[in-house]
Each structure stands twice: as C-alpha cells, then as structure tokens.
Amino acid sequence: MALKVAIVGMGGIGNTHARAYVNDDLSEIVAVCDIIKERADAAAEAYGVPAFYSVKDLLASGIKIDCASMCTAGKENGGDHFTPTMELLNAGIPTLGEKPISNNLDEAKKMVALAKRKNVRYAIDLNHRFTPAAVRAKEWINEGRLGSLNIINMRMWIPNPNESSPHFHVRALHPHSFDVMRYFGGDVKAVQAWFRRGETMEGKKRRCWSNMQANVLFKNGILGHLTGSYDAGGSYGLERCEVVGSKGRVVIDEACEELTFYNRADSQTEHYHHLGGMTGFGETFASRIHAWLEQNKKKVKPSEVDGSGEEALKAQKIIEACITSFETNAIVTVR
C-alpha cells in the first residue's frame, strides 16, 4: 500500500518533490499546503488533492499522513523551515525537510532535538549523496579499495545572482558540499575559510560573498578542501568530488554523471558513465525521495535514517564555522 504524503511549501522545490512522489509507486499525495493561497490552490488542482494554508489546519483536517515533505524557503532558503517542521514533528509525522536544515543553528538544533524526543524520522534533502556514483564510491571506500584516505577535494558552483544576504551562497548551496565530504570522510574537526565578493558578467561588484575556499580537517586526520562559487557554473559544470587514498583515487563528476577509479599501482582505470541509468542532476531528487519512502515503508529507526536532520545539522555547523573563520581570520573548531 502506498504511503500517504503531504507536502508543505508549494514553490518550485515543493513541486519537484510532488513530481517525484507522483512517479513513485511507494507514495500517494493526499494534501498540499502553502501560506500563499494561490500556490496551494494551483498545487491542489495539479495533483487532485485538498489545499491547506497552514500546517495547523492540515493537521486538524484528520487526513491520514504517513510522512511529509517540508519545502518552504525563507531567508537564505532556510529561514521559514522552523515553524512548519516543528508542527509536523510535534504531530509525530516523519518529515523530509529541504536544505539548508535552517539558516539559524539554534533553530536547527531544536528541530533535531524534537525529532529525537518524539522518536520521529527526520531527514533533509541532501540529494547529492543519493546517486549510484556516490553509493558505489562509498562501497569502494568501505571495502578498502582506496586504502587509507588522505585527501577529499570538493568543488561546487552554479551561476546564481541572488544578493538577498551576505552569506546566502555558503548557507544555501554548501550544505550539499559539506554533506558529500562528510559522507566520504566523516565528521569535521576544524576549518579555515576565505570568502570573496565577485563581479557579475557585466562587471558589477556583488554584495553577496559569492566565492569561497575552505580548508577542512576531519576528525580522523583526513585533509579536505572546498571550492564554491555563485560566479561560475554554466559551461564550467556543476561539481567534482575527488577522494584520494593510499591505494586508489575516486573522482565523481557532475554529481552523478561520471565515476572513475584510478589505481595508484598501475595505469588502469575503471570508468562508469551514467551509472545506474542516472543521467543528470535533476534525477537525484527522485532518487533521494525514493530512499526516504523506502525507509518509511520499512519503518527504520529514526537514528538509522540516511541523510538525517542530525547529519544536516553537522553540515550547517561546518558552514557557520567557515563564516566565523573568515570573520576572525582564524582556524575554527567545529562544535
């Protein structure tokens, strides 16, 4: 029997979630919700379900909800996440939130703490790790094929003109980057970061810190580096992740499109193009949501949820440490 799903926040990303649910045999959308009436009504018509204009009214409707997607935005794409997430979790509804978990660490901590206290599954759409390429690379690491890991390099950039806040770039984009780095390398001990305000293609100086470089020290001693930008992307591509070990090296290009293993001992390589049939970044949302549905169908323990709220909180702590590092010109411990 399909899981009954409600979606809160029916902007662009909410409709991306909705299309994934519609096309997944494990789910059935039963309600949509948005504080903007026109958005909620349009989604209700599109998906043939009731519209609600507050989570409170959604919960009071009596509609059975097995799990929900929480896709509101707000400042730095995370400012409006707290209240609806708390309402859903407090009602005992397993919730898949959007990234960033929040642009406010205190609110992020409260959401994770409530999910633990209520023993409810809480996850975030950290979709870059839910690709066949990332999963295969992780398997190789766990099997020891790369040997002892030494270095993780990450590059993620997109052409984004958003100037709504000084730190929109790092808070909105790099939950993904740091989550991928953590997925392969584990928890982070300290960071050292620099930011730069770039220029538009027309030569106008930006208000947002639109470029960043960060050195990362993992708790296990692995060394990492992140390059991020809102002034690149386009023909430059989207992302590259490189994991370097004593025996081998893995490179993932464009999130999921290319996976290459390099054997240190000889010149042989192992290459996969569109592993698992995933041809582009747009397909990662359906993959991530399917994994969420599978885990809810299996009723896994909240502590075993992949891409959990707690993992997203750890990524957000790294981001805030990077901001502090830049502002204080110091190496900052991630706490």
Calculate the mean pLDDT score and round it.
Answer: 97
Q: Going by CATH, what is the homologous superfamily of the largest domain?
A: Dihydrodipicolinate Reductase, domain 2
User: H/E order of the elements?
Assistant: EHEHEHEHEHEHEHEEEEEEEHHE
Strand order of the largest sheet: 14-13-12-11-7-10-9-8-15
Taking the alpha carbons of the first and last residues, their distance comes to 43 Å
Q: Assess the beta-strand content as a share of residues.
A: 25-35%
Question: What percent of residues adopt helix (DSSP H or I)?
Answer: 25-40%
Which terms summarize this structure?
six-stranded parallel beta sheet, globular, Rossmann fold, Dihydrodipicolinate Reductase, domain 2, 15 strands, single chain, 335 residues, alpha/beta
Q: Helices and strands in order, then pairings?
A:
Elements: E1 3-8, H1 12-22, E2 27-33, H2 37-47, E3 51-52, H3 55-60, E4 67-70, H4 82-90, E5 95-97, H5 105-118, E6 122-124, H6 132-143, E7 149-157, H7 168-185, E8 188-196, E9 211-218, E10 223-229, E11 239-245, E12 248-253, E13 258-263, E14 269-273, H8 284-297, H9 309-328, E15 332-333
Parallel strand pairs: 1-2, 1-4, 2-3, 4-5, 5-6, 7-10
Antiparallel strand pairs: 7-11, 8-9, 8-15, 9-10, 11-12, 12-13, 13-14
